[in-house]
Automatic annotation (TrEMBL):
Family matches, as InterPro entries: Arg_biosynth_ArgJ (IPR002813), ArgJ-like_dom_sf (IPR016117), ArgJ_beta_C (IPR042195)
Active site: 199 (nucleophile)
Protein name per Swiss-Prot or TrEMBL: Arginine biosynthesis bifunctional protein ArgJ
Keyword Transferase: yes
Site feature (Involved in the stabilization of negative charge on the oxyanion by the formation of the oxyanion hole) residues: 125-126
Cell location: Cytoplasm
Amino acid sequence: MAKITSVSPLAPASFPTLPVIRGARFSTAAAGVKYAGRTDVMLAVLDPGSCVAGAFTKSATRSANVLDCQSKIRLEDDAGAAIIVNSGNSNAFTGRAGDESVQAICAEVARVTGLPATRVFTSSTGVIGERLPHDRIKAKVQELYDGLDEAGLPNAAKAIMTTDTFPKGSTTTVDLPGGTVTIAGIAKGSGMIAPDMATMLVYIFTDAKIGQSDLQTLVSALNEKTFNSITVDSDTSTSDTLLVAATGASDVSVTADDTAFRDALHHVMQDLAHQVVRDGEGATKFVEITVTGALNDADAKTHAMSIANSPLVKTAIAGEDPNWGRVVMAIGKSGAPADRDTLSISFGDVKVASNGWVDPGYREEQGAAIMQQENISMTVDLGMGSGTATVWTCDLTHGYISINADYRS
């Protein structure tokens, strides 16, 4: 796996101070899944009464871990739950051996924690097509359990990293009529990032009291606006997993219709999604693309993702070239309806094109100045309807090639 020697220039200034989420404890260990001496396994154990919701990759070649989580996610049980994650090996495209690895790890976590195996969720991330040395993970489960700490979430963020250049965390609190609820989450992701869902692992924890079906409703809806609205390289992973756990320890009840809680969870999910893009392999620019005036929201998103995934658009951004013709190309190829003669494009606050032609007031140096910025916004108005969508991406540089050419070295 490629060795990362520098932190992304788009990284946050510092890792946030993550609060204790009552009812959840965390630990990490070095199991030697791929590299000796590297912390590469994390365990989270949730108190009885906790519920878990999730979203997963739709890849046809998804891993044994994903398939197992999908089979368990809607099962309700007051026993609590555990989440165990390893980096270095994705346990994907490993056939029956992959299923056996998941079963063996779940059985050992169940034995040590006293939880039913149906309440143990696993994730693996790293190289595809190599058998997971699950005995190394099993050998660490007791150590992990003995080291559980309610303040251990920041260390867990580091344990799940692969080509990430920085650990990713986010948190917020929300004051509700019944009291204060806390939300905190971690993520990993840098390359192989595209919706369906976007390619990463994400674990979010809250002390809110909420039913599994309500939590699942929220997670599914918010996932579409956050992790399913980012792309680094248009490639969808075999291992994408988002798990959101609610312990209920605050005793503050919420539902899927609670706007304040929804907004708070949205904030954490979007923050983590943006951090994944900011850590895009080789990235030097963070790009927000908004499409308005489409026939509907779905068409708007199709157009936005076509722009965001275009290698020509992304390399132009890397070269700080305001080549708006490439945006026109991406709109035209998306497959969603568009009208050449009603199309308008802006880079930042600079109107580049209006009604199907270069804007009369546009000057090339204006667009070039926008492209020199670290954070770039693009807006495309199709002039056809009221559909809108916003997605986030990064540029495509030589750094991406270097990382992925040597990924298994």
